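Translate structure to sequence.
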């Protein structure tokens, strides 16, 4: 449904016929870590996340899993090589 509270006119999963079903009945503004994300949108009352009504909960335990401005790359760890097995493989 369309939001009728803070993000007036935007699609919202928490909107019902009775109003906003999220705690407090409103969405919360983005925090400093959200700046630069493509999911943020500017509304007349401020900047809000289009994917999450309360961005602080997404950043509580580290990086937000919805953030588009953060790349999560896995560092390849050097695998330990057993010298005894390596010498046996080289003889084959």
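Result:
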């Amino acid at each position: 449904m369309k939001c009728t509270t803070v993000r007036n006119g935007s699609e919202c999963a928490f909107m019902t016929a009775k109003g906003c079903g999220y705690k407090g009945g409103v969405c919360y503004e983005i925090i400093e870590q959200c700046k630069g994300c493509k999911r943020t949108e500017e509304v007349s009352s401020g900047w809000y996340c289009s994917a999450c009504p309360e961005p602080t909960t997404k950043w509580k335990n580290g990086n937000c899993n919805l953030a588009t401005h953060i790349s999560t790359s896995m560092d390849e760890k050097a695998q330990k090589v057993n010298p005894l097995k390596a010498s046996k493989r080289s003889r084959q």
